[in-house]
Design goal:
The protein has three helices and five strands, in the order αβββαββα. The protein has a single domain (8-137), classed as HIT-like (HIT family, subunit A, 2-Layer Sandwich). It has 140 residues and is an alpha+beta fold. It binds guanosine-5'-monophosphate. The site of guanosine-5'-monophosphate (5GP) has 14 residues, from strand 2.
């Protein structure tokens, strides 16, 4: 499948539609997942147009991991998470639903099961507050 430049994440990257942004640098953007599987669920994207791991430039993969590591620190501190999962899907059969590469940074809390993947929208005000907390905890 060819990369679709009008996929929802490409449009967020271009600023055409809003997102609850927490961090941005030259190569990556991080924002809140609109249908979080746990409080603090954050997505990290490369700014290059890659659909999945197979067409992602290795230097951009490194940049995504670096930002993902920072996001893991930030969500752990902001939400006092007991653990953090980094997850990434490639292809519909693997569970990918948006076809611009992204890394899920998912805080885990003892005794609290994950919500379903891309199932139910969170309230915007809640996501904005979570984004604010993550921005405040982002490592220097
Ligand atoms: P995938 O299934 O491709 O790994 O993950 C796509 C993720 O993007 C899902 O977790 C879903 O909740 C999230 N998502 C889908 N549409 C939007 C959107 O318009 N804005 C944001 N912030 N997240 C989205």
């Amino acid at each position: 499948m060819a990369y679709d430049p009008n996929n929802i994440f490409a449009r967020i990257l271009r600023g055409e539609i809003p997102a609850w942004r927490v961090y941005e640098d030259e190569r990556t953007l991080a924002f809140m997942d609109a249908m979080p599987q746990s409080d603090g669920h954050t997505l990290v994207l490369p700014k290059s147009p890659a659909e999945n791991i197979f067409d992602l430039d290795p230097a951009m993969a490194a940049a995504v991991i670096q930002t993902g590591q920072q996001a893991a620190h930030a969500v752990r501190q902001a939400f006092k998470a007991d653990g953090v999962m980094l997850v990434q899907y490639n292809g519909p059969v693997a569970g990918q639903t948006v076809f611009h590469f992204h890394l899920h940074v998912v805080p885990r809390y003892a005794g609290i099961p994950l919500l379903g993947h891309a199932r139910s929208m969170a309230e915007g005000a809640v996501l904005e507050e979570h984004a604010r907390r993550i921005r405040a905890a982002w490592p220097a």
